[in-house]
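Re: weekly structure request thread

Next one in the queue (77 aa):
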Amino acid sequence: MSNGSNVNVDFSGAIGNIADSVGKLFQFQIDTLNSGIKTVSQFVEPLAKTTTDLATNLAGTLNNVLQSVSSAFAPKK
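Done, posted below.
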């Protein structure tokens, strides 16, 4: 009888260890996901600013080109 009782205690401990391991794995996945989101946001912010600056500069350059072309074709007074 005592041998069967020890098996139950060991089985119960094994179940507890498995549950603990599953909990740690789940927490690791959550932490990894949070870290990934932070990393992506750190890259997106400067990229968005650079893209906006590039678009603004491109629009200014196109405006200058159009003004130059317009003044070249405008009748001289």
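The chain has a mean pLDDT of 86. The radius of gyration is 33 Å.
Next request, please.
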